[in-house]
């Protein structure tokens, strides 16, 4: 058991029959009354983010987790297949556990968060930025740069993002995997 003094970003614990990870926390000591910890927690099974307040000294059930570097192998109808880079063990992970799976290429190394109690995968963390090649986009019209207009572009994995008009087929671009937005040309 851990108390609210152990809460920090990335801390994982069991709450309301689910496993949550702390996204953001703030210890509050008001002038009147008892101290408390205000948190934003993310469910590792559904991905929902909740705001939760715990009184100071409240006990929480800590869940021990490990991060494993894994290589994405392929996707089929059973799910996404990964291989542990150290032990060469393979694991199949369902699409619901992966945020923006369209930004993974075969051979990419990603981090998988495992529950150490039963050795089950909890979440898949993609790198914050990936560089990919644009396989198709409509050509931009010359002189149409007065506004910040975006056009759809298909990437090498089949994912679609919105890009500025000056991006052409064959360009390599940098994408933020959390929001799925264009960052820059590479």
Helices and strands, with pairings:
Blueprint: E1 2-3, E2 12-15, E3 18-28, E4 36-43, E5 49-55, E6 59-62, E7 65-76, E8 79-84, E9 90-93, E10 109-115, E11 120-125, E12 129-137, E13 150-155, E14 160-164, E15 172-176, E16 181-185
Antiparallel strand pairs: 1-6, 2-3, 2-6, 3-4, 4-5, 7-8, 7-10, 8-9, 10-11, 12-13, 12-15, 13-14, 15-16
Summed up, the helix count is 0
Report the uncertain regions.
none
CATH architecture tag of the largest domain: Roll
How would a crystallographer describe the biggest sheet? Answer: 6 strands, antiparallel
Largest sheet strand order = 1-6-2-3-4-5
CATH fold-level assignment of the largest domain: SH3 type barrels
The whole-number mean of residue pLDDT values reads 89
* Series of H and E elements: EEEEEEEEEEEEEEEE
From the N-terminal CA to the C-terminal CA, the straight-line distance is 47 Å
For the secondary structure, the number of strands is 16
Instruction: State Rg.
Output: 21 Å
Beta percentage is over 45%
| Structural category | mainly beta
CATH class of the largest domain: Mainly Beta
The percent range for helix content is under 10%
Number of domains: 3
Instruction: Characterize the overall form.
Output: flat
């Amino acid at each position: 058991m851990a108390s609210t003094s152990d809460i920090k970003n990335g801390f994982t614990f069991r709450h309301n029959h689910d496993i949550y990870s702390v996204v953001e926390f703030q210890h509050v000591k008001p002038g009147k009354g008892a101290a408390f910890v205000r948190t934003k927690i993310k469910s590792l099974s559904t991905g929902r983010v909740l705001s939760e307040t715990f009184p100071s000294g409240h006990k929480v059930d800590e869940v021990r987790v490990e991060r494993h570097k894994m290589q994405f192998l392929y996707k089929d109808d059973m799910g996404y297949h990964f291989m542990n880079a150290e032990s060469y063990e393979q694991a199949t992970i369902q699409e619901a556990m992966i945020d923006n799976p369209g930004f993974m290429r075969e051979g990419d190394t990603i981090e998988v968060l495992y529950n150490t109690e039963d050795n089950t995968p909890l979440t898949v963390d993609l790198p914050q930025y990936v560089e990919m090649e644009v396989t198709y986009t409509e050509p931009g019209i010359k002189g149409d740069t007065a506004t910040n207009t975006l056009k759809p572009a298909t990437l090498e994995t089949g994912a679609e993002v919105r890009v500025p008009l000056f991006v052409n087929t064959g360009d390599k671009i940098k994408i933020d995997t959390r929001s799925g937005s264009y960052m820059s040309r590479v």
